[in-house]
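If it is no trouble, might I ask you for a protein's amino acid sequence along with its backbone structure tokens?
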Amino acid sequence: MTKLIVIGFLLGIAFCMPSQAATNADDFLNSVHSAKAFSLGQSLGMVNHLDAALLNPAEFYVKTPKQQVLLSYSNDFSEEQKMQVGYSMPIQYSPFRVGVVYMSQQISNVPEVEKSSGDPEIVGYFENKNEAVKILSAYQVNPNLSIGANLIVLRETIKTASGMGYGADFGLVYRLLETESLKIAFSNAVRNVSFAGFKVPIQWSGKDYTEAIPATFQTALAISGKLMGNPTIVSLGFNTEITRLKLNPNVGLNYSIIHSQNFACDLRGGLNGAFLTFGVGINWVGLGLDYGYGVHDYLGNSHRVSLKLDF
């Protein structure tokens, strides 16, 4: 059964019908994550619950009866404002977990360019807004294997014009080893999938415009153990557009400097492509506060803050 699920997941990747290069909507769907996931280089195998749901829906499954609420806000490169609100709950007496996430991104001062006979000319500026709802689900097949899927409804607005598109995410996590002192997991996800191509049709300035969103594949090997007596997680992996193979590294490190039953404090670092990230998180009796900071070599800095509550 486990082998059939893994083979089916790989075949699903092969039959995805993504389209062209990255867009604002593509960046929106692939980067609106919690401060915790962001500070860990958006690496797989590092987080769970709502922190992980937008990266790999299979990691959304956790063995806890608790519900969770997550609120995230980010300011990217001074002109991008992003927000995420999510809720998750277990299905009692079953290996299922479900949830819903609302995400938004607003980019100001986007240049409007016209090209006549000469060089392109900026004739004005406008705002671009993306909003999405993801319906989340995850299922534990057996103690070693979890699978998950997200249904995506996306709305994009350019000036006064808008359009909608639909897609899905799929993921699986296979636990290669799980002992008291060492855990190794293989995590895989394919995001923004649609067999007809994930597209958002918009009629803008009297013209038909299509926002094409390419499907993305991401994989990682995550190792959990102890370093100098403290819980530590390391993840090594990469992501790429399926039709344009360009491997972008994802590396994450989470080191718990304080870890007790009621209180924890973690230091984090990561690499997402050319994006260096850092962060810190504290958790006190189910209430968590996370901060993430990103440094890009030419785009500037990014700040993200998340507040979550388990109850």
Q: What stands out?
A: The first strand starts at residue 68 and ends at 76. Residues 2-226 form one domain.
